[in-house]
Amino acid sequence: MIILTETRHKKGEQSTTKKEIITKRQFNNITSDETLKWFRRFGGSETAQRGYTSQGYNVCKLTSRSPSRDCKTVRDFNFVDFPSYKAEVLFENLLKGMNQEGLFQLKRFKRLLTLDEVKQIINAKLN
Hints:
By secondary structure, this protein is an alpha+beta fold.
């Protein structure tokens, strides 16, 4: 599971931040060399910072600037691993959604949960 935190900075305005869960395919489309080159051809700036993650050597942070230099978007990628494939499948079945602050809504749960609380619930169901 990959959690994307996207922060948009515009000149003269307050920055906006949103969080969402993305798939590995979406991550590959966002961070591929072809995508970065395509945006650079328009005159924008794309900077990819790579680092060691739980899923290998990947892009951890992607900084984009518009061609007019008035908008900057910073995308941070947080890789979350579960102890087993069964735990990951259980999480995908329980997940209903995620809000802007990064709290998870699970099926049959009324309140929003943090990632640590979700992991505790999954471990309890597996044992």
